[in-house]
Each structure stands twice: as C-alpha cells, then as structure tokens.
Amino acid sequence: MVLTHNFKSQVLTAPSETASAVTSIQSIGNNMLSTGDNGYLLPFEAVSVLLLACIVGALLIARKR
C-alpha cells in the first residue's frame, strides 16, 4: 500500500532536452576500445581474461563433483 501511494503521487514529465543517444553510445565505445590516454582497452581485456579463467575454474570444479 505504501509503495502504490508513493508511485501514484509522482508526476512523470519528459526531459526538457533529449540526449543524443548515438553520440553518447559512440563515445562510450570509443573510450572502451581505444588505447589512448582515456582508453580502457587494457583493463577491459584484463577483466575479460579474469572472467574467462573464473568460468573455466567453475566448470572444472563442477565437473569433479
């Protein structure tokens, strides 16, 4: 009851300015996959290798049981 009362009392309005989704998505992609000063390619690859090692380890542990 409390949650429905809170949601009914709120008025949702559209934002005054719409963000350019293409530009923001493009900048996120460029930052994640660039090797420059603001690039995150090396940490992205390090995390992906770590996650792959965790998945392989979990599969090996599950297979032994």
UniProtKB/TrEMBL annotation:
GO MF term set: NADH dehydrogenase (ubiquinone) activity
Name any one Pfam family assigned in the record: Oxidored_q3
- What are the UniProt keywords, alphabetically? Membrane, Transmembrane, Transmembrane helix, Ubiquinone
Q: Which residues cross the membrane?
A: 40-62
Q: Does the keyword Electron transport apply?
A: no
Q: Does the keyword ATP-binding apply?
A: no
Instruction: Return the InterPro entries for the record.
Output: NADH_UbQ/plastoQ_OxRdtase_su6, Nuo/plastoQ_OxRdtase_6_NuoJ
According to UniProt, the name of this protein is: NADH-ubiquinone/plastoquinone oxidoreductase chain 6
Annotated source species: gut metagenome
